[in-house]
């Protein structure tokens, strides 16, 4: 356990990953439904650079979710290669990938996806459990991250006793608990009222600005996407537009 | 890490409340049956072993026996008599031997008739003392039967304790045994042996006079000089009696038993009963196990999304596997805890009823730590065993598919 905790350090940019945390090269994802083949992704190539705030946009059915699964290393491509910190995920063992994913990527979902039988604190502790942190350290970290998202009075509450905005903040604390390099947020404001959504977005921006955390935001809401400094637009499984920097300009023109 | 998993598993079981309890019923019944049965049979075995201790371990018992071939009644046991007793007395390794006469006789108390077992004491002082010692005859009230007593009787404690013959017997009471009036001169101490406590004792010649039995014995008891040689001496007695009675090997008209043999026979019978009941309990346990498997499959289905989330945030297949195995094991263990409690309660209840209402002191519940912990460990393992397939299917879920189930 000690060894694991010690090994857990930020990956320093090397030649192997060129400063990219996640690289997708010509990624295809094909689903077979009976005799029909459906290509959810058709050769997507994408670099997630260290320290950037990237937004992925696209209408529903465009392959957004599939792309997010690829970026999050939750799924393996049918064709093409995904590198996580310079390592080809296809060549990793199941447990190795799970561990690296747990350490490198923090997930925030539209549905919050908290474990309902556990308290807020236990939910935040869960990723630390899987990474083998000791009990005392887990509790301390979980408490500090819950305070960070402004929920220091809700440690013992179950998710069902929290509002949507509060649940999403617990989910953010959980995503941050393992001190990941990338936060992957899939429609994080989709189930929230505009005020709670703003709080969540502000928090992500702050995180990016102050801690330099890499953020990948998947959304179909342009106002949300506006917060990013790079935008990718996906349609029919292909990345059709990739706008560096001046995202807001593009958005205002369309 | 295990502590945290334990917490997660307990939470998830708690959340399912009633369903968790219902799942445990099969395990509860099975474990309760096994625990109560084993504790009672261990108690019975211990009690019987104590009985044998009371009767002494250096005694060999010879009884007559019919060959038992052919239709019932066609073969009659040739009873043991004085000549057989003399053969036993002369056998090498035998210290003292005595015939013991015990007969069912009609006993009348205040016009109420009842068939009771009446034992006897021989006149010879050495043999008399031997029978007194080996049957554990001691006096509680009144006095011991003397060899010159005639129509005097010594009664077991049970006759004093409870109105077996319509009323409780006490010293100086008059009872009619086999048509002859006897005076109760002594009540024997509770010996712990139901055979002694429930019998009456008169002098041998008087019993022969009353019953008309001239020279046969119900059994011959022999004390060996050296307990370690008891099996050899028993074999020698067998050999001598065979010659004396003209029996062929394997067709003896008598049996020679040592306490150990009796104990072994009893244990064999007890073991057969135990195996049968444990077999029935095993069916209940299997049904309970299948219930656990079913519940765990439901749980896996319901928590598919949770599994996806856990995998996304870094759970390896084996983490998910151990979580679900632990949960099904706990389900079994919880059933085991309740089952053990009910089983012990039931065993105590049986003991209480046996002692209080039936006066049987042989049935007692013996609770040993290996029994309790064995049952608990077993129920945990049973739960885990039946949780293996659901846990494997949970651990092999693809995180993406699992997450899609919102």
Helix percentage of chain A? 25-40%
Strand content of chain B: 15-25%
Based on CA inertia axes, which overall geometry of chain B fits?
Answer: elongated
Helix content bin of chain B:
55-70%
- State the distance separating the first and last CA atoms of chain A: 52 Å
Class by alpha and beta content of chain B: alpha+beta
The CATH superfamily name of chain A is P-loop containing nucleotide triphosphate hydrolases
- Low-pLDDT runs of 5+ residues of chain A are 1-11
Enumerate how many helices of chain A there are, as a single number: 9
Tally of individual domains of chain B: 2
Biggest pleated sheet of chain B:
6 strands, mixed, barrel
Commentary on this structure:
The complex is a heterodimer of chains A (254) and B (406). By secondary structure, chain A is of the alpha/beta class. In chain A, 37% of the residues lie in helices and 27% in strands. Chain B has 406 residues and is of the alpha+beta class. Chain B is built from 13 helices and 13 strands. Chain B has helices at residues 2-15, 17-55, 82-90, 125-134, 157-161, 194-197, 204-211, 230-245, 259-302, 304-312, 317-356, 369-395, 399-404; strands at 59-64, 80-81, 94-100, 102-109, 112-121, 139-142, 152-155, 174-177, 180-188, 200-203, 216-217, 219-224, 254-257. In chain B, the strands form three sheets. Chain B has a six-stranded mixed β-barrel. In chain B, strands 3-12-1-13 form a four-stranded antiparallel sheet, with helices on both faces. In chain B, strands 2-11 form a two-stranded antiparallel ribbon. Chain B starts with a helix and ends with a helix. The mean pLDDT of chain B is 85.
